[in-house]
């Protein structure tokens, strides 16, 4: 199980990537910061960064305004 933002649980499967988790939660924000167990994952690496079972993941949507 992957825990996201200490709020959502996503069932884990072998080969799961950061992008898979974001897709499962329908997180499609253009400006998003992702951390896996406290380590920042670069956006260009979302599709190739594996997410181990039991991971604590943070997905933070960056908002700007004026």
CATH class: Alpha Beta
Rough shape? globular
Give the end-to-end Cα distance, rounded to a whole number of Å: 38 Å
Please name the CATH topology.
Ubiquitin-like (UB roll)
Strand arrangement within the widest β-sheet reads: 2-1-5-3-4
Question: What's the count of strands?
Answer: 5
Question: Into how many domains do the coordinates divide?
Answer: 1
Strand content: 25-35%
Main beta-sheet strand count, sense and barrel state: 5 strands, mixed
Which oligomeric state applies? single chain
Number of helices: 1
User: What is the CA-based Rg, rounded?
Assistant: 11 Å
Per CATH, the superfamily is Beta-grasp domain
Low-confidence spans:
none
Structural class: mainly beta
What's the order of the H and E elements? EEHEEE
Write the layout of secondary structure elements.
Layout: E1 2-4, E2 8-10, H1 18-24, E3 32-36, E4 39-41, E5 56-61
Parallel strand pairs: 1-5
Antiparallel strand pairs: 1-2, 3-4, 3-5
Structural notes for this entry:
The chain has 66 residues and is mainly beta. The mean pLDDT is 94. The chain has one domain: Ubiquitin-like (UB roll) (Roll), CATH 3.10.20. The relative contact order is 0.32. It contains one helix and five strands. The protein starts with a strand and ends in a 5-residue tail after the last strand. Helix content is 11%, strand content 30%.
Give a concise summary:
With 66 residues, this protein is mostly beta strands. 11% of the residues lie in helices and 30% in strands.
